[in-house]
Amino acid sequence: MPERDGSLKGKVVIITGASSGIGAAAARVFARQGARLVLCARREDRLREITGRLREQGATASHVVADVSRTEDVRELVDHAMSRYGRLDAAFNNAGVGIEKTPLHLIDDDSYEKVMATNVRGVWNCLRHEIAAMLTCGGGAIVNTSSVGGLVASSTAAPYIASKHAVIGLTKAAAVEYAAHGIRVNAIAPGLARSEMVEAWFAQNPEAEQKAYRSAPQGRAADPEEIAEAAAWLCSDRASFVTGATVPVDGGRTAW
């Protein structure tokens, strides 16, 4: 796999939620920039396929099946990176789940807990173990995936909106606390990006596609690699003076 600019050359990077969508795109983007990857998700078949393809193209990659909502799974993920490569330089905490559009007063406890477990506790678990490892490595960079829903609200998705606002709060808190230790922590706030879930939704609801496009000045959905490029930049040394920030990658959605 030819490197594009080598801005992540030799860096050991964990990517969670790497089996599809933005996470799988990030695996390709980070590999092209020379990173050594540890990919994480719950779907082993997809992880194995993605890791194998990257290796065939010359990338250095391994994978760990893990559920980020489980502390022990995340500990094993970070331990794998440290034991295999001897260090951890960056992490893209991208794993997340959505919720079916439902009025707030009709959302049940299980739906709320599912969203919070992955989107908030998952980021919390990753931050704790990644930061602990980076403190032994002299620093690092972490990027958490929030959403435009972490910056503005929309109806019928209250737990998701709350969870993505929480990701930004965790990002700022960690950035302030560990800046003096050489650890940068930022977030990205993606807008609409094409994924398996989004494509299936558009197929079932053609009118929703055009409505979604009208909600952003650029009038389209992002390719997942466009989102991943922002995360790669924040993980690289080119963003050395950026920490505690939330970068919208939304085609102008939140500018309106």
Describe the structure.
The structure is a single chain. The protein is of the alpha/beta class and 256 residues long. The protein has a single domain (12-196, 225-247), classed as NAD(P)-binding Rossmann-like Domain (Rossmann fold), CATH 3.40.50.720. The protein has 8 helices and 7 strands; from the N terminus they run βαβαβαβαβαβαααβ. Helix 1 packs across helix 8. The radius of gyration is 17 Å and the shape is globular.
Write the CATH fold name.
Rossmann fold
Q: How many DSSP E strands? A: 7
Strand order of the largest sheet: 3-2-1-4-5-6-7
The CATH fourth-level homologous superfamily? NAD(P)-binding Rossmann-like Domain
Short recap of the structure:
The protein has helices spanning about 20-30, 45-55, 70-85, 110-135, 160-180, 195-205, 205-215, 225-235, and strands spanning about 10-15, 35-40, 60-65, 90-95, 140-145, 185-190, 245-250.
Q: In terms of topology, how is this protein built?
A:
Layout: E1 12-16, H1 21-32, E2 36-41, H2 44-56, E3 60-65, H3 71-85, E4 90-93, H4 109-135, E5 140-145, H5 158-178, E6 183-190, H6 196-204, H7 206-214, H8 224-235, E7 246-249
Helix pairs in contact: 1-8, 3-4, 4-5, 6-7
